[in-house]
Write a structure and sequence with these properties.
seven-stranded mixed beta sheet, EC 2.4.1.-
């Protein structure tokens, strides 16, 4: 009886809502909204006066409404005003202008970064990256997503306003970093839409359905029918006081050799020489450079390691959502990391081999296991290596030698092909072509722990939230580590190049015990050296 009574109530509510929608919405909403020229001008940046007080109807969803129930209209005494959408320059430039401004939500402590249109799922969504002070978003704070659709290129043609409760999801595990005092937590706001967007629309976040908004973003559907590329690397916030230009060139060229098609880099503060390198590769179209969402170099009050890790997630997820319709895979990497296929020639060949090995790309990511190549352990191999029967070239003086007694440990060795590439680089740049770490470092830490410092090939059509190492959430809900498909170590590894084992790594002793030789990267030698021979000159931090 109780169940039948509940069904009667639901059916009655459905009928009432239906009558209201077809009568009130059609007769009042449509006719009045099309006549609201002043409102439309304001919504798209005009300076028209506010509309006169009148009863208006906005279609809104209730968070408590049962699944599948149609929304009931919400009556407002006037159409809410929408602020002009602020002009924002997302691209980085060497002038080091102010980072993108975050927009406030009236009545809440939430700050908004950027909005995106997500049509990967049966129900289209508006996604907004945000942040708030504290660890858990307060349950008592209700946020609403208000979407203003426009029917044509005419800025005044606002045909509907839709309001829905915004789902809030912290981009962080609550068990991480329990010791910090003041923190800011990254947040994803998700707002379902009744129908796909067919053109540019404006979205705002409010705490009351009928109140004037204090923020506004333009979202435009991407009409791409297929991906533009396979692999995009995402590099979180670059903040280096020292010159990293040489390491950066080596890293960029190695990734290009491996089949990366685009690298998105978020720049905080780097040296002038490094800026030159970034600008050079941007001019080729291989790099896209963005301002960091949060400028760590100017943050003093909460500039801690754990807070920076939180802040980086805004950059990584911005990279994810920028590439939803552009790139089949994204790969979060730091500039001291290389995903190295051991058998395949490149990343495309690697993904094919991984699929043949059991990876179903309906799984959100393939997890690549990490090994460290510390600078200070590289000499341990050299003290026992005194001879080489092959023909050698010493970069020190470019003189050919045939001598089995040559001390290899004290010299950089170039083979025949290296010599050709080195001479080509020297003729153009007036300096020697140095052998990169990828080819020079041949001793690594032991392979310990399947899930210690891994990186992932992430499937963009499935990942909802990206983290530095693996997805945090997907279309099927939150993930735990065993749900990631573990790529066989025999197929691929993450080469992680560091000067030493520092305080950021736990239990350094296990990485320094039982180190072992690893020459897997040497199979790339000819291709990498050829690429470096035409790379930017570094002698005077200029570009040739």
């Amino acid at each position: 009886m109780q169940l039948n009574g509940r069904r009667v109530v639901q059916m009655t509510k459905y009928l009432v809502c239906g009558v209201t929608i077809f009568c009130a919405s059609w007769m009042v909403c449509v006719s009045e909204w099309r006549a609201a020229g002043a409102w439309g001008g304001r919504a798209w940046g005009g300076r028209a006066r506010a509309p006169p007080p009148t009863m208006r109807t906005i279609v809104a969803y209730s968070e408590e409404a049962p699944a599948g129930e149609r929304p009931c209209p919400v009556a407002c005494d006037r159409l809410p005003e929408l602020p002009a959408v602020p002009a924002t320059n997302w691209s980085w430039s060497r002038e080091r202008g102010a980072p993108p401004a975050w927009q406030a939500v009236r009545g809440a402590s939430t700050l908004l970064y950027r909005a995106y249109y997500d049509d990967r799922f049966p129900v289209p969504y508006v996604r907004i990256l945000a942040k708030f002070p504290g660890r858990r978003f307060p349950e008592e704070v209700k946020l609403y997503c208000r979407t203003h659709r426009k029917s044509s290129d005419n800025a005044k043609d606002i045909t509907s306003i839709e309001v829905v409760t915004a789902e809030t999801r912290e981009i962080w595990y609550s068990t991480w970093d329990l010791g910090s005092n003041y923190i800011e937590t990254p947040l994803l706001l998700s707002c379902p839409l009744t129908d796909p967007l067919d053109g540019p629309s404006t979205v705002s976040i409010v705490t009351e359905t009928c109140e004037d908004a204090s923020n506004a973003f333009i979202i435009t559907p991407n009409e791409n029918k297929g991906y533009e590329r396979k692999f995009t690397v995402c590099v979180k916030d670059l903040l280096f006081e020292k010159d990293i230009s040489r390491d950066l060139v080596e890293w960029i060229e190695a990734n290009r050799v491996l089949g990366v098609e685009k690298i998105d880099v978020y720049v905080d503060k780097v040296s002038k020489a490094t800026e030159n390198i970034l600008e050079h590769y941007r001019s080729t179209g291989f790099l896209r450079l963005y301002n960091v969402p949060i400028n760590h170099s100017s943050q003093q009050n909460i500039n801690t390691l754990w807070q920076r890790r939180r802040d980086h997630l805004i950059s990584l997820n911005d990279c994810l959502y920028r590439n939803l319709k552009e790139s089949e895979f994204i790969i979060p990497l730091d500039i001291d990391e290389i995903i190295l296929p051991k058998i395949a020639d490149n990343l495309l060949g690697l993904t094919r081999r991984l699929i043949n090995s059991g990876w179903n790309t309906s799984q959100e990511s393939a997890l690549v296991q990490n090994v460290f190549f510390f600078d200070h352990i590289q000499n341990s191999d050299k003290k026992n290596s005194k001879t080489n029967a092959s023909e050698l070239y010493l970069k020190r003086d470019s003189v050919r030698l045939r001598d089995n007694s040559v001390d290899i440990a004290s010299n950089e060795i170039l083979d025949d092909s290296d010599y050709v590439f080195s001479e080509k680089y020297r003729a153009r740049c007036g300096e020697d072509l140095l052998v990169p770490k990828l080819l020079r470092h041949t001793r690594r830490s032991p392979h310990v722990g399947l899930y210690e410092h891994p990186k992932s090939l992430m499937v963009t059509r499935l990942v909802l939230l990206a983290f530095n190492h693996y997805p945090l959430a997907s279309r099927v809900g939150s993930l735990v580590r065993p749900m990631h498909w573990l790529a066989p170590f025999s197929e691929v590894q993450l080469n992680h190049y560091k000067a030493s084992c520092n305080s950021a790594l736990v239990s350094c002793d296990k990485y320094l015990r039982n180190t072992q030789p690893d020459r897997n990267a040497l199979r790339l030698r000819r291709r990498v050296m050829r690429a470096l021979s035409t790379s930017p000159c570094l002698a005077h931090t200029g570009i040739n």
